[in-house]
Design brief:
Layout (H helix, E strand, L loop, with lengths): L11 H20 L9 H15 L10 H14 L12 H34 L1 H4 L9 H21 L3
Helix pairs in contact: 2-3, 2-4, 3-4
């Protein structure tokens, strides 16, 4: 029984070959005193595919800032593309996956800090000042929504700061 060939979303061999060609172009440009050439579209597509696929992992999928995580991962790959050395490793997929993974963790950390700052601002300024309604006095549904939102924020802050 013949084994079915699995289709990878990034072919590691082609990715490595493209990186080696790019490194050669960069070395030639530096030798001639020219600026670095642009990263080829194929390499950029590989970065995008790796970052997008990694963002669907269970530990990253539910964040509402997933697009920012993907962008950070791609930016970090472009920033550190010159550090990949094919003489040390022939697995660029793993190398850039790690770069993207840690970029995701840094973005999550930044966003958590921002959420904590927002929560502290809400707590210190008072909920009534921030959560007000422009609805008519007779709009019971609108008033109930505002009250529900205020209660959920108060509950979150109470749990967060153990009060």
């Amino acid at each position: 029984m013949a084994r079915r060939k699995t289709e990878n979303y990034v072919n590691n061999r082609d990715f490595l070959d493209a990186l080696m060609v790019y490194r050669k172009e960069v070395a030639e440009a530096e030798a001639n005193g020219q600026p670095k050439p642009r990263v080829p579209p194929y390499i950029g597509e590989c970065f995008l595919k790796i970052a997008t696929h990694l963002s669907y992992k269970p530990n990253f999928v539910n964040y509402m800032f997933r697009e920012d995580m993907i962008c950070d991962g791609i930016e970090n790959c472009l920033q550190y593309i010159h550090n990949f050395n094919p003489e040390k490793s022939t697995n660029p997929f793993a190398y850039f996956t790690q770069i993207i993974y840690f970029a995701f963790l840094r973005r999550i950390s930044k966003e958590k800090k921002q959420l904590e700052i927002k929560a502290k601002i809400l707590e210190k300024s008072g909920y009534q000042e921030i959560m007000h309604t422009d609805t008519n006095k007779g709009d019971v549904a609108g008033d109930n929504r505002i009250t529900t939102d205020m209660n959920s924020i108060t509950e979150y802050l109470g749990i967060r700061y153990k009060r």
